[in-house]
Amino acid sequence: MRRVRHIIRRHGYVVAIAAIALATAVFYPGRDVFAKGQWALLYLLIIVVVASVSGVGPALLAAALSFLAWNFFFLPPYHTLTVADPKDWLSLLAFLVVGLLMGIQTGRMRTRELRAVARERESTFLNKISTSLVSEPAPEVMAASVVTETVNLLDVARASIYAAHAGRLVLLASKPDEDDEEGRRQAEAVFRGGDGDGPVAVTAGTRLFLPVEAAARLHGVLRVETGASRGPFNEAEVRLLGSLSNLVASYLEQQELEAAASQADALREADRLKSSLLSSVSHELKTPLSGLTATLSNLLESDVDWDEEDVRRELRAIVADVQRLTNSINALLDLSRLEADSWEPQRDWYDVADLMVSGLSTLPPHERTRVTVHIPEELPLVNVDFAQLTRVLQNLLENAVLYAGPASAIRFAASAGQQGIIIRVEDEGEGVPVDERDRIFEKFYRGAGLGPTAPSGTGLGLAIAAEIVDAHGGRLWYEPQQPHGSRFCVLLRETS
Hints:
Distance between the termini: 67 Å
CATH architecture of the largest domain: 2-Layer Sandwich
Number of strands: 12
Oligomer: single chain
CATH class of the largest domain: Alpha Beta
Radius of gyration: 43 Å
CATH superfamily of the largest domain: Histidine kinase-like ATPase, C-terminal domain
CATH topology of the largest domain: Heat Shock Protein 90
Structural class: alpha+beta
Largest sheet: 5 strands, antiparallel
Strand content: 5-15%
């Protein structure tokens, strides 16, 4: 129906001629039945119909043809333009004036109505497109949605969106899906024209190529074709498609800005991590190295008499510094392997008690006495990487020993829940401040609230533990204890 109305509007003068000819053929047999003045009223009705369908120009033509047809076929003498009764000249002139005025007024009303309908249609179309642009995260999905809406709402044969990528055009979406070389060449010509005096819209027959431009930068080309049956675009359609190209350009510009902002954020985060890494590594490596240097220098002093106990004490200090260096280096290596996805869990079925005993054995013997272990009987087996889970439990236990204080008791327990096995490490220390609980699993975060009393470390233990547990499909989280203290929970889902 829309296509029929479009054809009628395009061929309005033909419609006017056909309408008067058809009306005359229908009226002619009744020429001797009705009075000659009544035909003027019927012709005025035809003029109004033509004006309402085709506009002012065809209505004026219909008024002139009605004037001639009434005179030629319905006023004696018939089949001539001669008028026998002079009073008929007055009727003819009055008819012509009234017909012209009615055609002009009705045609203008039709034009205003069409403009109002076009504006409403444009508003509806642009609102739909705006909704698609807001809701679609990917340019390809956005383009597919836009071309589909364009074809459906504007009744065009084809719509395509090309986007600029690395200095050339790439087809984002098209409906129909296939692309043709001639159309692509014309789109490329519009795109290349943007490098000179500025991009301009190009109309090639029933094809329209619009530059997708925002902030004086060409982002692509919008191509729309009406098809041979519809003919070229009218002014309102060109204006509407220009608004559409601006919306698409704004979307692509926003996508580029968001990508640039994300890249900038990633670079800032990389700089922050690099600074944290350098600060942590420089401290954690420099301190034990300084201790090692000082201890070895003392041992090498020739003017000092060392007894066996003093030597053993100094050697124990050397071992502690070497262990500290080893832990720091291992933490950094573990982190790099986890982030590179090169530390895949080697899973097998293990007893929870074996895992907990292995984790507890990593503590120094004098610290193990502070830990109370509770393991229920008949816990199901868990499917884990034994070495990795031991590392998780070691980190949690070492944190409890370091941060809870020497007087705090530590509880190491496991239980079976609906989702799997939960292993808990609890202490009675000060706990984690509320404003730091969301950050304790971040890389290199060591607790700002502890200040100079904070134990030394890289700030990687909990981050590595969380990564390992996540790789196993589990979850690691923190819970505060009442009235004070901390509880770290490890959920392992895959059980026998």
